[in-house]
Amino acid sequence: MDSIKACLFDLDGVLVDTAKYHFLAWKRLAAELGFEFTAQDNEKLKGVSRMASLDILLKVGGLELEDGVKRELAERKNGWYVEYISKMDASEILPGALDFLKQCRERGLKTALGSASKNASVILQNTGLTPYFDAIIDGTRTSSAKPDPEVFLLGAEELGVPPEACVVFEDAEAGIEAARRAGMRCVGIGSPDTLGAADLVVPSLGDVSLNLHFQN
């Protein structure tokens, strides 16, 4: 237990489920472009940056567009997404997440958000989660997307905790790889079938015990 000093959390799929709003916005964009974007297609976007996600979507539709057009489309999609998340509240915090954050605070562990989302601050504010974080590293502060470890290394640096004393909570393969490359331990939130590279895989933060899982 003493070896862990900080917990770093991804946002989408770990603390809140904003993935559904991303999907709605991407699906709406695809419809405007004249093709269908399915839930199965959307799985390819997990943990991927906005522009990289757009490239995947355009590939699904068999489209090649100039950079200027792509930037405009990405902004349009983001506008819809922000519209959706602006209506979020604390009821959308995933089961067990708030209790686990409170346990971390009570135990004296430092906490940081490590998310690719450029709208993380809005989501944390609307759900009331902002006070539970010592550092917030999001897409506005990073230059490289996961699986690059930048977001987690910045989080550890801001917390003043060495990587080996951090544990990451992630729901995407790219995030698990990023944690590994950062030299941190990692708990996968989801299915062992896709997150097997993590040190431990659980269905949700409600299934994690600080006493049970963070021992030396």
TrEMBL record:
Binds 2 magnesium ions per subunit. The keyword Transit peptide does not apply. Belongs to the HAD-like hydrolase superfamily. CbbY/CbbZ/Gph/YieH family. Its cofactor is Mg(2+). Pfam families: Hydrolase. SUPFAM superfamilies: HAD-like (SSF56784). Mg(2+) binds at D10, D12, E170, D171. The active site is at D10, D12. CDD domains: HAD_BPGM. It catalyses: beta-D-glucose 1-phosphate = beta-D-glucose 6-phosphate. It is an enzyme of class 5 (isomerase). It comes from Paenibacillus macerans (Bacillus macerans). GO terms for biological process: carbohydrate metabolic process. Substrate binds at residues 10-12, 26, 45-50, 53, 77, 115-119, 146. The keyword Phosphoprotein applies. Keywords: Carbohydrate metabolism, Isomerase, Magnesium, Metal-binding, Phosphoprotein. One of its GO terms (molecular function) is magnesium ion binding. Its EC number is 5.4.2.6. This is Beta-phosphoglucomutase. The record marks S115, K146 as: Important for catalytic activity and assists the phosphoryl transfer reaction to Asp8 by balancing charge and orienting the reacting groups.
